[in-house]
Amino acid sequence: MEHAEDIDVLVLGGAGVDTIVYVPELPLPYADSYMIDSGIHARAGQTGDFVALGLAALGLRTHHLDLLGDDPEGDLVRALHRDKDIALTAIPQPAGTKRAVNLVGPDGRRLSLYDNSRGRPDDRFPEDILRRLAAASRHAHVSITHPCAEALPVLREAGVGISTDLHNWDGENPYHEAFAYEADVVFVSVTALTDPETTMRRIAERGRAEVVVATAGAKGAYLLTDGELTHVPAAVPPGPVVDSNGAGDAFASAFLFGRLGGEPPHRCAEYGALAGAYACTVPATESAAMSRDALLARAATTPR
């Protein structure tokens, strides 16, 4: 049983398995078949898993809560958390564990195919478990997977800080709005945004966000705080770029590491850029995150 603030970050949702397929190019031209010399690999690690992995690697006490099936995919997720020493509370999911297929091109870009049959509209986290974990946590990072939206009022009532990642939100889909307007820290990719600044300011004006971050891959990120929009340059990757899988999750983890450590938002974003750049050097078939020592060592050479 956790006691008050035994958990630095409670991660909600986003547990699952990705099947990684390295393809010769993206978009992939139609053909009857392709020979995949690099193999087809199933490994645990969706957005919540990778955020939890990144936070734990940075020394934060992390607890992951999600629904998992009694299936081979669920076994892979449980094994990842066990091997990385990340606390996991798995609520039984009769529909099965979330899964996806990621097609990865030679330049590291990906195309994800999500199986949305692994859930039911009435799925919920048991309120007693959610309240107990929230009461023991300093902060909660909420994935946009179902049923996390229904957990937001309980987290708000518990008084924990809340962050979320809207991923490739187009700024219009109403599903994302509950997350965008209830979180104190909001991450979003610019990928599908026609006007990132307008969307960022709308999030801040309509919701609770103290900080809004729009990540832009090799172009860096944009940070909105106290009404001021600034650009954070991308960090130089410490090795060859092989895969963009997990870069946004790594960014969020390192940003939260800085925030919980009392760093100002711009420094937190610099931490995020460093961790995101590192993630791009890790093949999608692996699950690895930047360590605290490595992050701080690289950050020490980054001018404030």
From TrEMBL:
Taxonomically, the superkingdom here is Bacteria
Q: Which GO terms describe its molecular function?
A: kinase activity
Q: What is the taxonomic lineage of the source species? A: Bacteria, Bacillati, Actinomycetota, Actinomycetes, Kitasatosporales
List the signal peptide residues: none
InterPro entries from the xrefs? Carboh/pur_kinase_PfkB_CS, PfkB_dom, Ribokinase-like
Q: Keyword check for Zinc, yes or no.
A: no
Query: Per the record's keyword annotation, is Kinase included, yes or no?
Result: yes
Report the protein name in the record: Adenosine kinase
Instruction: Identify the residues that the record assigns to the Carbohydrate kinase PfkB domain, covering every copy.
Output: 187-287
PANTHER family linked: RIBOKINASE, SUGAR KINASE
Keywords from UniProt, A to Z, are: Kinase, Transferase
